[in-house]
Design a protein that fits this description.
By secondary structure, the chain is α+β, with helices and mostly antiparallel strands. The chain has 12 helices and 13 strands. Helix 1 packs parallel to helix 4. It has a 7-stranded mixed β-sheet with strand order 8-10-5-11-9-12-13. It has a 4-stranded mixed β-sheet with strand order 1-4-2-3, covered by helices on one side. A hairpin with a 2-residue loop joins strand 12 and strand 13. The chain has 2 domains: 152 residues, 2-Layer Sandwich (60s Ribosomal Protein L30, Chain: A); 165 residues, Phosphoribosyl-aminoimidazole Synthetase, Chain A, domain 2.
């Protein structure tokens, strides 16, 4: 007998619940609407996000895309999902801001195995909160229920941002010279990088995340979920005094500072100028991680590095009491582009 297809097959039976997703997307649209600027011409629900571009003489668009990475595994283990949305927005805002760009709109992607309205709403609530604080419109996105790709509680969170800067105000570090000052702005933890190593050190089960460490004064899950800080608001008024900005993300201080340094220069850093956060000290000790590896993977307590002339350094540290002078730009004498406490480091060498 010829084979026949099973009767009554539905999309819901295959694991995708369209009515449930529609309800979730309606709530997402409400949260996103609170972030909209006057320039937004279409809300979530249309096929594309419309944004009216005005107010600039010679605008240059600046874009970036990123994900929260395996930090979502910590969110899943703890059942706390409202901070990773903050993470991805602030990460992207910081990235484009290194060129001096103002964030104007953001789009998100949530890929999930099973649509859980409370979980998705928590994610978007974090996205919307961070967008509002940065003055950036959450203009669209995609929430995809894909049980064949994401198993169990798994999901992924990514974001795409567009910003704008006047062409004559772009910051790319081209006028940085030896003798310029390096100023560090503090992070509050890992931000969104290094979680694969952190999970290897601490584990990733709920019990692991609920372990209390006296060094941290809280559970490790609480420490690891600290939201990525955004530096846009505090640094924006100081841009006329800034020569370069390095967002310390994946690759740590060693991998990120050279991205804004002109050829032939290096960063000389004194780690005694700031106090490493307890989470980094604990990871290094518990995981027996080499010091150089720590500086290649983690931000080590510095989330953004500002490069400025010595005469402007006081203006920046005066306006930002938490900022610390952590070193200076020097002429490159070897292969290393970053020298920490007299030791040169390269991102491509262990």
């Amino acid at each position: 007998m010829p084979e026949t297809s099973p009767a009554g097959q539905t999309y819901a039976g295959a694991g995708v619940d369209i009515p449930l997703a529609a309800g979730v997307k309606k709530r997402i649209a409400e949260l996103a609407r609170a972030t909209h600027r006057p320039e937004v011409l279409s809300g979530i629900g249309f096929f594309g996000g419309l944004y009216e571009f005005k107010g600039y003489q010679n605008p240059v668009l600046v874009s970036s895309v990123d994900s929260v990475g395996t930090k979502v595994k910590i969110a899943i283990a703890t059942g706390k999902h409202d901070t990773v949305g903050i993470d991805i927005v602030n990460h992207c805002v910081n990235d484009i801001f290194t060129s001096g760009a103002e964030p104007i709109f953001f789009l998100d992607y949530i890929g999930i195995g099973k649509m859980v309205p409370e979980k998705v709403e928590a994610l978007v609530r974090g996205l919307a909160r961070a967008c509002r604080e940065a003055g950036c419109a959450l203009i669209g996105g995609e929430t995809a229920e894909m049980p064949g790709v994401y198993a169990g509680e798994d999901y992924d969170l990514a974001g795409f941002i567009v910003g704008v800067v006047e062409k004559d105000r772009i910051i790319m570090g081209k006028n940085i010279t030896a003798g310029d000052t390096l100023i560090g702005l503090p992070s509050n933890g890992l931000h969104t990088n290094g979680y694969s190593l952190a999970r290897r050190i601490f584990g990733e089960s709920r019990a692991d995340m609920e372990t209390y460490y006296p060094e941290l004064g809280r559970t490790v899950g609480e420490a690891l979920l600290e939201p990525h800080l955004c530096y846009y608001r505090q640094l924006k008024p100081l841009l006329p005094h800034v020569k370069g900005l390095a967002h310390i993300t994946g690759g740590g201080l060693v991998g990120n500072i050279p991205r804004v340094l002109p050829e032939g220069t290096a960063a000389q850093i004194d780690s005694r100028t700031w106090e490493a956060l307890p989470i980094f000290t604990l990871m290094q000790q518990k995981g027996n991680v080499d010091r150089g590896e720590m500086y290649r993977v983690f931000n080590m307590g510095i989330g953004m590095v500002v490069i400025t002339s010595p005469e402007n350094a006081g203006t920046i540290t005066g306006a930002l009491p938490e900022a610390k002078v952590i070193g200076e730009v020097v002429k490159q004498t070897g292969e290393a582009r970053v020298i920490i406490d007299g030791t040169g480091y390269r991102q491509d060498k262990v």
